[in-house]
């Protein structure tokens, strides 16, 4: 559940960029069981979790949604906002009460376009998160659905 070093905004972005992004954030709270995003829905915001936990899940036809990863303190929730068509790739639901910083996706994309150095730093941050999450998804899906031993690398 702990973020790898490259995925924490506090460790991934230079101070000036982090401060600029945080000026656009607003504090929000969600009760346990709140659906924050649905696969295929419009990705118009993202969050950095301050406290609590959120499950990332994947819709599986005919089955209960598969939990891919659980996010917690200081982790980013949502990356689909950065890349067109700006639709959620996964769902997310709070598993405990959550406090978070919420960011407007269009405003952050505009900041990134106006300041290419900021845009590059945000893209690098997102790249680290995507790499980590794809590895987690692969492992979890193999654990759930693949024949025994198919997830190991030789």
UniProtKB/TrEMBL annotation:
InterPro entries: cNMP-bd_dom, cNMP-bd_dom_sf, RmlC-like_jellyroll
Superkingdom of the source species: Bacteria
CDD domains associated with the record: CAP_ED (cd00038)
SUPFAM superfamilies: cAMP-binding domain-like (SSF51206)
Occurrences of domain Cyclic nucleotide-binding (ranges): 9-78
Record-linked Pfam families: cNMP_binding
SMART domains cross-referenced by the UniProt entry: cNMP
Designated name of the protein: Cyclic nucleotide-binding domain-containing protein
Source organism of this protein record: Streptomyces cynarae
């Amino acid at each position: 559940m702990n973020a790898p070093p490259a995925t924490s905004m506090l460790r991934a972005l230079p101070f000036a960029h982090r401060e600029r992004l945080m000026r656009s954030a607003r504090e929000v709270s969600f009760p346990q069981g709140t659906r924050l995003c649905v696969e295929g829905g419009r990705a118009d915001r993202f969050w950095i979790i301050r406290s609590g936990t959120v499950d990332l899940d994947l819709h599986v036809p005919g089955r209960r949604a598969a939990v891919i990863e659980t996010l917690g303190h200081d982790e980013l929730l949502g990356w689909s906002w950065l890349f067109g068509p700006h639709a959620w790739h996964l769902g997310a639901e709070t598993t405990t009460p959550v406090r978070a910083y919420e960011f407007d996706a269009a405003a952050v994309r505009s900041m990134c376009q106006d300041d290419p150095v900021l845009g590059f730093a945000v893209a690098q941050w997102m790249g680290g998160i995507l790499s980590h999450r794809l590895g987690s998804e692969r492992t979890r899906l193999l654990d759930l659905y693949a024949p025994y031993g198919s997830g190991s690398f030789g």
